[in-house]
Fold this sequence. Notes:
Radius of gyration: 16 Å
Mean pLDDT: 93
Number of domains: 1
Strand order of the largest sheet: 1-3-4-5-2
CATH class: Alpha Beta
Low-confidence stretches: none
Helix content: 10-25%
Order of helices and strands: EHHEEEEH
Number of helices: 3
Shape: elongated
Largest sheet: 5 strands, antiparallel
CATH architecture: Roll
Number of strands: 5
Strand content: 35-45%
Amino acid sequence: MTFKVDFKVRDYECDLQGIVNNSVYFNYLEHARHEFLYAKGVDFAQLAKDKINLVVIRSEMDYKHSLIPGDEFYVAVEPVRISRLKFAFKQIVVRKRDEKVMLNALVTGTSVNEKGRPFLPPEIDNLFKTEI
Length: 132
């Protein structure tokens, strides 16, 4: 995985146990995917304006360890092809100080046109050449 986005845990992202709440990881992963798309020249917001919506259809997360306030970490993103109309992002959350993997994820999606029918526009299709 070569694309990475850096983060730092903020206090309010943690629960009563003093660890990052499990739901917050969804936000980290989503932000990293959007940054990946933007870095590849795909404007997520413009696609939506053009009535092309990228949608998540499945999220699989394997929580390995917990992040705590102040932890610096990165989310790595690797695009993979699932099928003709489905793509996925392999993502990992890694704590920087020891390079420990905190979470592995596979987020599967597709895009739909204004009629709600799945299709992949060329700018998305070209990103996902490697099959799982």
